[in-house]
Amino acid sequence: NAGVTQTPKFRVLKTGQSMTLLCAQDMNHEYMYWYRQDPGMGLRLIHYSVGEGTTAKGEVPDGYNVSRLKKQNFLLGLESAAPSQTSVYFCASSSRRDFATNEKLFFGSGTQLSVL
Amino acid sequence: GIQVEQSPPDLILQEGANSTLRCNFSDSVNNLQWFHQNPWGQLINLFYIPSGTKQNGRLSATTVATERYSLLYISSSQTTDSGVYFCAGRDSNYQLIWGAGTKLIIKP
């Protein structure tokens, strides 16, 4: 059971380059999320999706774009990378946005991105 | 102001010790959860604990929502408990707001 898979695991970019991070989940989850984690901080939400074809901005969306063309995939794009986007990126998925029923948030293993 | 605040930021203990981690949260945050991030970066849910007490093996959590705090207890610590413990709560937009974490190191 793969769960949530992120690719790539590591990437180094030069300022101004573009790239796409792929997140795939095999649990038929409706909700998917992209977070970034900076040293000494908790996770901050970049963008999220509540279903196929939908996306919404989170806490720190500037400089990123996302797409959810298929239910199982959530892509995060950086059009023109900046050093401030050096971070660890986590994808997550869940079956419900409201955790009232104790549904879990499942995380990928993270992508370490360095922008030089 | 800070919506989710954790203490202590760092904690170093010997194997076998007990520990208590604290999470204070503001009025704008609810539905507390605790997460563990292992030294290799993998994140897992520990508890969904909007109020009351839950236990899972050597770990337990208590949230007193009226006083806006939650506690995570780890008893008889093992080296595998090392990592960063995060608490997070939902804001009015259903987004998770995370604390900065408590880094726990258990020495053998």
Describe the structure using short key phrases.
heterodimer; A: 116 residues; mainly beta; seven-stranded mixed β-sheet; four-stranded antiparallel β-sheet; 11 strands; B: 108 residues; six-stranded mixed β-sheet; five-stranded antiparallel β-sheet; globular
Describe what is shown at a glance.
Chain A is an all-beta fold and 116 residues long.
Structural account:
The complex is a heterodimer of chains A (116) and B (108). Chain A is 0% helix and 47% strand. Chain A has no helices and eleven strands. Chain A has strands at residues 4-7, 10-13, 19-25, 31-37, 43-49, 56-57, 65-67, 73-78, 87-94, 106-107, 111-115. In chain A, a hairpin with a 5-residue loop joins strand 7 and strand 8. At the A-B interface, strand 5 and strand 9 of A face strand 5 and strand 9 of B.
| Biggest beta-sheet profile of chain A | 7 strands, mixed
Shape of chain A: globular
Order of helices and strands of chain B: EEEEEEEEEEE
Strand content of chain A: over 45%
Q: Quickly count the helices of chain B.
A: 0
Radius of gyration of chain A: 14 Å
Mean pLDDT over the residues of chain A: 91
Low-confidence stretches of chain A: none
Q: Based on helices, strands and strand pairing, what is the structural class of chain B?
A: mainly beta
For this entry, what is the oligomeric state of its chains?
Answer: heterodimer
**What string, H for helix and E for strand, traces the elements of chain A in order?**
EEEEEEEEEEE
> Would you identify the regions of chain B where 5 or more consecutive residues have pLDDT less than 50?
none
